[in-house]
């Protein structure tokens, strides 16, 4: 103890000498330390909890936002996948529709061609029939005209050639034939 | 007022008179007077036709011959014989009419029938029979 007291007294004495050499008032220093501790205590009691609470809240908000962002990203990815799936399905359906449309168009074209062919064949047949009729009618007309012409020519020739004598002979022959 | 005398009775009267040998001129005058008096002159042709029919019933044929030329005596005789043969008539009276449109041949008009053997008729037959519809 003596040693300690002596050491303390020597230390104090030495400290006093040091503080003094450094220009520090140890009483003021103690007061400042106490004030600092009081300040720390006050800050720890009133300010730090509020500050920490705010920080925690902000952190939790940030984490929530991050989570929401992640969720949104996930949802977006899922949406992208769904959209991709939908697009793929739509492409598939579109392809099927296009194929069906092409097939139907081909069938329609084929049907139209067949119909057009039938119509053209019918038109040709009608035309042939009409031509045959026209030819037949023309032949009839020609025949009848020839007949008329022959009759007219015969009439003219007979009228010129027939005289009274020939007519008498004709009448007698007619009478004989009629008997 | 007496009733209207039918055409048949008039024709009978005239035909019987002709068959019996009454005066033709007198019969004709009677008929003409009657028709004028009764205003039936429009019926003359029909009465003449009826008279011809009645005469045909009595064996007297009044025939009209239509030809393009005058008939020769031989032809006329041949026609008379032909008509007698066809109608079994005892007497045939011919009237020749010239019609150049018949061209040739002869058309015999008898009461109730007609025999057309003209060239014009033959040509018409040729044109109509062989004509295509």
Structure description:
The complex is a heterodimer of chains A (179) and B (133). Chain A is rod-shaped, with a radius of gyration of 68 Å. Chain A has helices spanning 2-22, 26-161, 164-178. Chain A has one domain. Chain A is mainly alpha-helical and 179 residues long. Chain B is an alpha+beta fold and 133 residues long. Chain B has two domains: 1-58; 61-133, no CATH class. Chain B has five helices and four strands; from the N terminus they run αααβαβββα. In chain B, a hairpin with a 2-residue loop joins strand 3 (105-110) and strand 4. The radius of gyration of chain B is 18 Å and the shape is globular. The chains are: A mainly alpha (179), B alpha+beta (133). The interface between A and B is medium-sized, with 24 and 29 residues.
**Topology pattern of chain B, helix = H, strand = E:** HHHEHEEEH
Strand content of chain B: 15-25%
Mean pLDDT of chain A: 87
* Ends apart, CA distance between termini of chain A: 202 Å
Question: Shape of chain A from CA axes?
Answer: rod-shaped
The whole-angstrom Rg of chain A is 68 Å
Structural class of chain A: mainly alpha
Q: Order of strands side by side in the largest beta sheet of chain B?
A: 2-1-3-4
The count of β-strands of chain B is: 4
Tally of strands of chain A: 0
User: Number of domains in the coordinates of chain B?
Assistant: 2
Beta strand % of chain A? under 5%
Identify the most extensive interface between protein chains: A-B, 24 and 29 residues
Total count of helical runs of at least 4 residues of chain B: 5
Shape of chain B: globular
């Amino acid at each position: 103890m003596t040693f300690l007291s002596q050491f303390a007294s020597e230390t104090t004495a030495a400290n006093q000498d040091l503080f003094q050499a450094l220009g520090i008032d140890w009483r003021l220093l103690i007061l400042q330390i106490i004030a600092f501790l009081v300040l720390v205590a006050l800050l720890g009691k009133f300010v730090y909890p509020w500050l920490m609470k705010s920080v925690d809240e902000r952190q939790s908000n940030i984490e929530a936002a991050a989570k929401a962002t992640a969720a949104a990203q996930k949802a977006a990815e899922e949406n992208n996948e769904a959209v991709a799936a939908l697009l793929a399905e739509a492409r598939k359906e579109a392809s099927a529709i296009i194929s069906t449309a092409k097939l139907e168009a081909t069938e329609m074209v084929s049907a139209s061609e067949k119909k057009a062919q039938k119509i053209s064949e019918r038109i040709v047949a009608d035309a042939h029939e009409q031509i045959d009729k026209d030819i037949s009618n023309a032949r009839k007309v020609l025949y009848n005209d020839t007949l008329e012409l022959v009759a007219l020519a015969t009439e003219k020739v007979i009228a010129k050639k027939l005289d009274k004598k020939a007519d008498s002979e004709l009448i007698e022959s007619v009478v004989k034939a009629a008997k | 007022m007496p009733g209207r005398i039918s055409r048949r009775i008039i024709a009978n009267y005239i035909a019987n008179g002709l068959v019996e040998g009454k005066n033709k001129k007198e019969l004709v005058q009677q008929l003409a007077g009657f028709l004028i008096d009764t205003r039936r002159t429009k019926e003359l042709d029909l009465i003449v036709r009826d008279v011809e029919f009645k005469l045909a019933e009595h064996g007297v044929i009044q025939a009209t011959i239509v030809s393009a030329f005058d008939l020769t005596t031989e032809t006329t005789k041949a026609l008379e014989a032909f008509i007698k043969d066809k109608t079994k008539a005892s007497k045939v009276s011919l009237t020749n009419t010239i019609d150049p449109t018949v061209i040739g041949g002869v058309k015999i008009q008898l009461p109730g029938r007609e025999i057309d053997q003209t060239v014009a008729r033959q040509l018409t037959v040729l044109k109509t029979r062989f004509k295509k519809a």
